[in-house]
Amino acid sequence: MEQQHAFAHAMLQWYRENGRSLPWRETQDAYAIWLSEVILQQTRIQQGLDYWLRFMHRFPTVDDLAAADEDEVLRLWQGLGYYSRARNLHAAAKQIVALGHFPDTLEDIKRLKGVGDYTAAAIGSIAFGLPVAVVDGNVYRVLSRYFGISVPINSTEGKKVFAALAQELLPAGQAAAYNQALMDFGAIQCTPQSPRCLLCPVGELCDALHTGRVEALPVKLKTVKVTERQMSYVYLRCQGQTCIRRRGKGDIWQGLWEPPTAEVVQAAGLPLGKQLRKQVKHVLTHRVLYADFYLLEVDLQPRLPAEYKWIDESDIEQYALPRLIEILFESIDG
């Protein structure tokens, strides 16, 4: 118990001296806090900050976000990846507006589209002071090392062990500060590689440091197989216009726009044209994509499947594109 109390006290003291200054920490607005948490899933703070500022400028309230067109939300999200987050964000905004206020209990926050245990705990504790602990990658790492826990963090047992420990450590009345302290400590001090152990305020009691297991903890089971996928696209140009289609459900990039594939162009009886890029590598979480890219200029618009639409080339920026398509488009001549 003494070790746990000393740990919580040290985290709060460290946070007062070293915590990151972030704009969503300067407000009690649940909307702003929720927006930051959704953006920062799978995203570095510096990149996420820029997107948060953009969203807050364009949609200063949840009502503004709920009333927006999905295409505009996706365009503003462009470059962050994991586009289901943007679609869930938009859907949840509509839920909040329908409810008439931002939900302020853990159970109601979890009912929002795309909000899981971690995000709900972060919003609940930071915006409403709810006594609930957050457990993310940083928290897993810090607790695993400090207490010397070798149970895999992505196992059923591990999730239960760390969730229970995190909740037990939570100091009364200080959930917001403590949760943010632990997240910042993992991001700044107890980092995945080259942690600052010699300057660690809890180093004297850190099990991993004293047993030489800092690099070995936390333990994570390897369960996901990365697959490779080949893609080929053709940029069709016809008298200042090009054609694109919106990707459907059941695959990557749902709701985003893309040019015709090589298969579609060849099925229309057309050649692929000039090859601009070959085997461009693009890494997603569980996939590695390799893409070829061609430019084909024609005098008449060919007959393509109904989902393709012709637009002025100058209007392409009005459509939300996957990052890979942006990279391919950068190779097109003016």
From TrEMBL:
GO terms, biological process: base-excision repair; mismatch repair
Gene Ontology molecular function, alphabetical: 4 iron, 4 sulfur cluster binding; 8-oxo-7,8-dihydroguanine DNA N-glycosylase activity; adenine/guanine mispair binding; metal ion binding; oxidized purine DNA binding; purine-specific mismatch base pair DNA N-glycosylase activity
Catalytic activity: Hydrolyzes free adenine bases from 7,8-dihydro-8-oxoguanine:adenine mismatched double-stranded DNA, leaving an apurinic site
Entry keyword annotation includes Oxidoreductase: no
Keyword Acetylation: no
PROSITE patterns cross-referenced by the UniProt entry: ENDONUCLEASE_III_1
Top-rank taxon: Bacteria
Cofactor stoichiometry and binding remark: Binds 1 [4Fe-4S] cluster.
Family stated for the protein in its record: Belongs to the Nth/MutY family.
NCBIfam families according to UniProt: mutY (TIGR01084)
Protein name: Adenine DNA glycosylase
Gene: mutY
